[in-house]
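Cross-posted from the bioinformatics board.
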Amino acid sequence: MQPDYLVVSGADKRFGAATVLRDLSLSVAQGEFVSLLGPSGCGKTTLLRCIAGLLHPDRGRITVGGRDITALAAHQRNVGVVFQNYALFPHLTVAENIAFGLRARGISKAEAGPRVAEALALVRMEVHGDKPVTALSGGQQQRVAVARALVVRPSLLLLDEPFSALDRKLRETMQVELKQLLREVGITAIFVTHDQEEALVVSDRVAVMNAGQIEQLTDPVTLYHAPASLYVLDFVGQSTKLSGKVLSSSDGMIEVQTAFGVLRAPASFMPGSSVAVAVRPEAMVLAPEADAALNTLRGQISDISFLGSRTQIHLNAPAEGEDRVILELSRLPAGLATGQEVSFGFRVTDTMAFLA
Amino acid sequence: MERFAKGLTSFALFLTIAFLLLPIVVVIPVSFTEAPIFAFPPEGFSLQWYGRIRNVDGLLSALGLSAQIAALSTAISLLLGTLCAIALVRGRLPGAEAVATFMVSPLMLPGLVLGIAMLQAMRELGLRDAWFSLLIAHVVITMPFIMRTVLASLSLFDFAMVDAARTLGCSYPLAIWRVLVPNILPGFVSGALFAFIASFDNYPVSMFLVDVRTKTLPIQLLNYLEISPDPTLAAVSTLLILLTIFVLFLCDRMVGLRRMSSI
């Protein structure tokens, strides 16, 4: 395993007046799955297209396996791409689509045959080889697109929102299926997505992008539990955010005054500074016993939403204000009603604080 | 009431079709007449007017010239028009809409205006050769037909396919050839068909550019009609109708008329 297999260093890209990539650097290990996550316009697709060679950065270098490919055109790079709507060729059959890259490399029909069959088997589409691609379902089209990209044995696979064209249920199945398939092949893969859940499911590491830069690049668990900024926190998962003022600070622990009362968080900010305190909904408990490791607060139930596997309880602050708390419980205790005042708590170590 | 309305529209449709087709259909029996005049119903049956086509001075060479000009101008328009259409659809050109409208504008311009303008332009350029003048003018005539259908096809074409072909190892020109061209083939075929016909039967523009030895078929036919209005013209027309049917049949076989007319 090469730790710096794909390296993008100092990439800038401008379109007219708009800067889409700003001095962006990224390093991906061989065989690793990395997601580029961000809202539309954050530059994630531009970065993908720069790696594919469909765009060229104004500045910076891109290397794969130590080889500088910055100046190479797309067709010289040997980088596979699965496009958002798959971009299958409707004038060709499934097998011809898969053979396309082999034929473009000057491999004869006879030689390409077994490799196409192998690729068809890999994505379990053996019986569909002679069908026109227009006759396939969304999931099947995705498999053909993956087979077409993999059959040429690319040094890298790029996937641009590969699940966005599928309905929700199928998407979840295909995410797991594709992840296993790519592991089996052992390829290095970069996913572009705006869906945070998808990023957490499919990747070893997630790069959250913001305005042409990578805001945080880390594994899904760290990303969820220790987001580096408010931006990352907002983008990944649900959370309750309370604004407040730092009362005191000592030994890496701050006390914050919020609309719900005073709470503690592991951070060191100057007393008096404005902060946002955040907690994940599932980190909260209802009516906790007294415990020094917990922040314990009170609030009034404004809404109870039953979501099947879990129930969300929305709480209003006792004092006037906009701030609300969302609690998530896997089992709903009996006798709860809206309007009721309850106490709730969460571990101090689960409390995140950011400068607002 | 509803049935009556439906019946009325069907009747109107039938009348319109008859109105459009009857004059054309009448030409066919007339071409087999024995009489030396255009008369319907025809008298007797003979193939003499078909035989005469070969003997009428300049008719065959005019046919050859028209076919040559139409084929060449269509081919040139296909190549140039496709490149222009790609630039208009893909390139971030300022005023692409206006340019696209301009490129199809000769369709809206009266042929006479275009013909006079062409005549002047050729004079200014000092181009005296009738064949080249005709070819250039006919590229102008055919271009809008190609542009219109190719632009329409391209607007439905997913250019991610070209990107896909590039990442699979095709250079940009090769990707265009292997992926874009086969996918907009119906647009090419129907555009080329209309362009060929527009060139083949063009009169108002060609009339300013022909000379004594270089005459296109419509001009030669009209000349002939003025001298001896006999059923030879009906025979020529019948052959042209046959040719059109044959070409339409070929197109249907190749890409399907339904796909063509949808563009």
